[in-house]
Design a protein that fits this description.
The structure holds two protein chains of two kinds. By secondary structure, chain A is mainly alpha-helical. Chain A has six helices and two strands. In chain A, a hairpin with a 2-residue loop joins strand 1 and strand 2. In chain A, helix 1 runs antiparallel to helix 6. The radius of gyration of chain A is 16 Å and the shape is elongated. The two termini of chain A are 21 Å apart. In chain A, 49% of the residues are buried. The N terminus of chain B is likely disordered. In chain B, 55% of the residues lie in helices and 10% in strands. Chain B is an alpha+beta fold. The radius of gyration of chain B is 24 Å and the shape is globular. In chain B, helix 3 runs parallel beside helix 10. A five-stranded mixed sheet of chain B has the order 1-3-2-4-5. Classes of the chains: A mainly alpha, B alpha+beta.
Chain lengths: 140, 238
């Protein structure tokens, strides 16, 4: 149970980071520029948009979904249900793959690493490890 | 323990809800007080530090006697510079420099260390400028930034653009091999450094820092033009 709680808390932290990065991308915290910090460079790049929406927006949606599922799975109504760990694992796998792609782009394409993106990638990896070990029960 | 709230009353449950509370309160406060930027150090090539600043190292477009001077410090590989040029810069240049004549645009290179193709790109544009085609090359390099920027070596792309805008290829190649504009590129960046530039794009209108937004830029240009006109008429009357 503690692993699902940890996933929920981590997802909530990730959600706030994504909201910050989304507001940053939308210019709420100032104009985008290169040189003052790598986050500006990353956020100003073409890779900060995915399927027409800011990557940070996808992050907000993903973390919100993980939080909701993980939170529900800590409630007794759903604690014995088999779907929450499966959905969590599915979300975590997708998140890890996307996060890996974004980290690759930062390191080898944009040549700039945003520290908040790194924190988000680490949270995603931790969520994946916890989701893996939090018990998708084997049939039978 | 009641059904549906199994975790709330237990020890781990209390810690869980307390952690959620802390994250929510901390997150909201952090968002409210967050500011833009990592405030990292300037990342410009070392060579620039050994070059003398030169206010004449920029490339100019428009009439020399235009009442408004727009100065831009930019890095060809900076995504924010390409974004600025495609959303605001190009239109401002078209409307107020090329057509209106109210302003001239002076472009200064400010290649950041984090962008390995920034100097070759800048040099390529300067070599095109030698044949009177700086701005065509400038537009192509910025316009196709996402295509050449990820490559290990982008010089082939710049060579292709040189062909596309009809440069004398032999002269262009010779210019690139010579590296004859490197000093100017560094002198331009050094000048920017002297003006306090630490990010790209950085804009000035008649010496005053300017934003990237089209409408705000336009407003500043019109105000600067009006101020220049009124001071000129004052001089005439006096």
């Amino acid at each position: 149970m503690w692993k699902r709680m940890a996933v929920a808390v981590l997802a909530l932290v990730g959600l706030f980071i994504s909201v910050y990065l989304l507001l940053f991308k939308l210019g709420v915290y100032g104009e985008l520029a290169c040189g003052t910090g790598s986050c500006e460079t990353v956020q100003a790049s073409a890779y900060a948009t995915f399927v027409g929406l800011p990557v940070a927006g996808w992050g907000v949606a993903w973390y919100a979904a993980v939080f909701v599922v993980a939170f529900l799975s800590t409630q007794s109504v759903f604690s014995e249900a088999s779907w929450p760990p499966r959905v969590l694992l599915l979300l975590a796998t997708g998140g890890l793959a996307f996060s890996g792609y974004l980290t690759y782009v930062e390191l080898f394409v944009i040549n700039a690493v945003c520290r908040w993106c790194v924190v988000s990638a680490l949270i995603t990896a931790a969520i994946f490890v916890l989701a893996m070990s939090s018990g998708v029960r084997k049939p039978g | 323990m009641s059904k549906g709230t199994r975790t709330s009353g237990s020890g781990p449950g209390r810690v869980f809800y307390a952690a959620i509370g802390v994250v929510v309160v901390g997150g909201v406060l952090a968002l409210l007080f967050a500011r833009s930027g990592d405030s990292g150090p300037m990342e410009i090539p070392i060579a620039i530090a050994e070059t003398e600043a030169d206010a004449n190292a920029g490339v100019s477009a428009g009439a020399d006697d235009a009442p408004v001077t727009i100065v831009e410090f930019a890095d060809f590989q900076c995504p924010a510079c390409a974004r600025f040029y495609s959303f605001s810069g190009r239109l401002i240049k078209q409307n107020y420099v090329d057509a209106g004549g109210q302003a001239r645009w002076v472009y200064y290179d400010y290649p950041l260390d984090q962008h390995p193709h920034a100097i070759p790109a800048a040099h390529s544009a300067r070599c095109a400028g030698e044949q009177g085609r700086f701005w065509q090359m400038h537009d192509l390099i910025f316009g196709r930034q996402t295509s050449w920027s990820p490559k290990d070596d982008a010089r082939g792309d710049f060579d292709d653009y040189a062909g596309e805008i009809g440069l004398d290829q032999a002269a262009y190649r010779e210019c690139m091999e010579d590296g004859r504009y490197l000093e100017q590129i560094f002198a331009a960046a050094k000048y920017g450094q002297r003006l306090g530039v630490n990010s790209t794009p950085t804009l000035f209108i008649n010496g005053e820092r300017a934003p990237q937004d089209y409408q705000q830029l336009e407003q500043m240009i019109l105000e600067a033009a009006a101020a220049a006109a009124s001071s000129e008429s004052g001089e005439t009357e006096g």
